[in-house]
Amino acid sequence: MKNKWKTLLSLFLMTWVIFSFFLLINFGTQYIGKSYFDSGNFNANLGRFKDGIGRYVLEPFDLEEAKKQITVTQEEIEYHRNYYGSLTDQVANIKAQYQERIEQAADDPELQKMLTEERDRKIDDIKKNFSDDEYVEEKVRKQKEEIIDKYAASQKEEEKVFLDEFNYFAYELRNVETGETFQSGDVNADAVFTESFGRKNGYLVVNSSRTIQPDYYDDTLMNHEIPVTGKVFRFEGKITIPKSMMNNAYFKEDYQAFMLSKMSLYGIWATALLAIAALLTFAKPSLDNLLSHKRGKGLFLQLPVDVRIAVVLISASLAYKFILDMGNLIVYNTYYFQNEYWIRYIFDLAYHFAFLFIFAAVSILGAVWIWESLDNEEKVISEWKNAFLYRLSDGIQDLFLSRSIGVQALFILCVAFFAGFGFAVVFMDLQAIVVYVPLFLFIALPAVIVFLRNAGYLNRIMKQTEEMAEGRLTAEVEVKGKSPLAKHAQNLNELQEGVRKSLTEQAKSERLKTELITNVSHDLRTPLTSIITYTDLLKNPEITEEERNRYIEILDNKSQRLKTLIEDLFEVSKMSSGNVELKKERINLTQLLQQAVGEHKEDFEKANLELRVVLPDEPIYADVDGQKWWRVIDNLIVNALKYSLSGTRVYVTLKKVGSMAEFSVKNIANYELGDNVEELKERFKRADESRHTEGSGLGLAIAQSIVELHHGKLEIGVDGDLFKVVVTVSAV
Description:
By secondary structure, the protein is α+β, with helices and mostly antiparallel strands. The chain is built from 22 helices and 14 strands. The strands form four sheets. Strands 1, 2, 3, 4 and 7 form a five-stranded antiparallel β-sheet that branches. A hairpin with a 2-residue loop joins strand 13 and strand 14. It is elongated and about 165 Å long. The relative contact order is 0.05.
């Protein structure tokens, strides 16, 4: 029990020292060695007195001089003249204003006459405005004189208020330039405040210039501010506040309150020194005493370390707030002093210090307990892993993977918070319902509805995502709007479509793989079977020489075919792997095509095919590998030669389209082409499914690979039996 009371005493003394220290920082410069007449309040009023005595006593406003300085410019005349429009506009407006009134007065001739005369006078006035500058100038001058007259009257009223408010000042001041002296009160009497003016301390300078601003605005005036030029005068003498006038001074209570605050602060700082002495002697706090409160310490240490730190910081902030509030109560106590609410004053001080002590004690004990719980690196790591923010960061960091969703979530949280805050405000002040209800109806409620709708949309997306994960490619997810969820739904649809295409491509790939193996086996086995057969026939010694030569010729043809098949297969495999080196150079494609066509011209005639070649007048150049590009042209021409219907035409065309060179071959196929012509570019794929025609089935595949290596494009088109191949490559 003894240790408990000692701890409380130590905490109380530490709180008092801290409180006194902050008072010293915040208010020390205002009160230590200072009097009331050094305070900001008094100096502000002194400045008002100096300004007022110069304005109302030393150099009062000269009405006649101000009127003499009135000037009217031509620009002001024109502004006044045309304010309501042009001459015709103004006359028309006046006539329109009086027309109805005159007609209504038809039964009263006298009234009608008066209205007519009044209208005519106004029209004459307008006409004179537009014909006589001096007439308008006089009008403007009178308006300004009225403003000056009203200003002069207001100055007289302000002078009475000033002299009554500052009647506790005494002064004796002499105009250095004119020698005129102004005096009020006894400046030689015993005074509480004196300020002297002169060569040594500086003169009191008064500038009689001023700018007159009317209390109302006449829109027909171009310039409402009227400058009045005056002179600058210097005054010497002094201003005092006699002691005898203190009871008349309005700041009497302010002065007494200042002295009370000063004595209170001095007393607090003196007791703080005693508190420091006590903390160093009999009330000296020990770490064991501060750590001995097992129950409070245990509850506190159950909190995550970052929450503990937050509690300490918040408590310290609240303690500082109560320090400032108490300081303001002590320093700015005029209200209590003037109204003699001493009991309330003491109660407010006690109330604030009680809360100050509570929050300061929590801050001090909390800081000590946190320090003791983090006295080594292992504890620091352990405490941090259990921190609230550390655990929260695992989940919240994913919130901003989509910035839009993160911002929307924070917005909804803010709306929810301020909606609850609004309920609290309305509960405390029912008048706030006028502001809160529209905010709730047009911001909070729509935000909640949007949030619930998006939550439902998210559930729908998650359901269909689950079905996709189970392999059920259902209907597309509905895309609503342009929100992140809509974008996600669109991505899911694209993913679903990609899966469908992947499955289709996979099935196609399996089919083509099977066909590839079948076709390769067939195309290699056919010449190989012939070679084996005719080799066996050659072993027969009874065959004639003619038969032997015919068999050898067949063996040679079949061997060449087998060699071509194998070479083409190796060629297309190398190109597919990208393991081909291109030797690019500037090639004349026109000349290259002419050579290729020339080599096969006789073959086309033998096959009863009419070859039509269309070449450009100017040569077309491209940066290509000449040998490889020859292979492309040759393969496509040979392909047309093998698979064209006898008696038809074959069209070979070369032209330049923009920056591209375009080479095309068109022919009528002698076999039905089918639907998927793109598969013709696959290896060992032919339009002749029965495979009765000569060829490896690799011609288009090789051409396709060569074109792609040159960053070109090979496209196949079919229209009935018309087969078309178009190759494009960049021209130079």
